[in-house]
Write a structure and sequence with these properties.
The chain is an alpha+beta fold. The chain has a single domain, classed as Calycin beta-barrel core domain (Lipocalin). Helices cover 15% and strands 60% of the residues. Strands 1-2-3-4-5-6-7-8 form an 8-stranded antiparallel barrel. The radius of gyration is 18 Å and the shape is elongated. 18% of the residues are buried.
Length: 125
């Protein structure tokens, strides 16, 4: 009997945690760092399904699909491959979702650039 009660309590706790997990689905807008301190408006259109995250990132250079998207509670991560002339650059994003904001850290593979931080806000549209 005691084991059944503990099992039920554990199931309820897992259910509450799942329901309380933040939802990253929707449109997000951010002023992302660019060259020489300039910023660029980027829009993230995200869809979270369980632990999988899909969507796109769009800016003045165009729209690109995100890959390897993951959700783990309030933590999200994904990759975007940007084409720059004949070169491709892989950008890795890690973020923490809190209400209507995501605090991101972005790194670019193959460079010695330091990680860049920015905040995305949930868009009303």
């Amino acid at each position: 009997m005691k084991n059944r009660i503990l099992s039920v309590l554990a199931l309820v706790a897992v259910s509450v945690f799942t329901l309380a997990a933040a939802d990253a689905s929707g449109k997000w807008t951010a002023e992302t760092p660019g060259r020489d301190g300039a910023t660029m408006t980027s829009t993230f259109d995200l869809k979270a399904t369980g632990t999988k995250l899909t969507g796109t990132m769009a800016n003045q250079r165009g729209e690109t699909a995100i890959t390897d998207g993951k959700m783990d509670g309030d933590n999200i991560s994904f990759t975007v491959v940007m084409k720059m002339g004949d070169n491709e650059r892989k950008l890795n994003f890690k973020g923490v979702l809190s209400g209507d904001t995501i605090k991101f850290t972005r790194t670019m593979e193959g460079t010695e650039r330091p990680p860049q931080e920015f905040v995305a806000k949930r868009s009303a549209t």
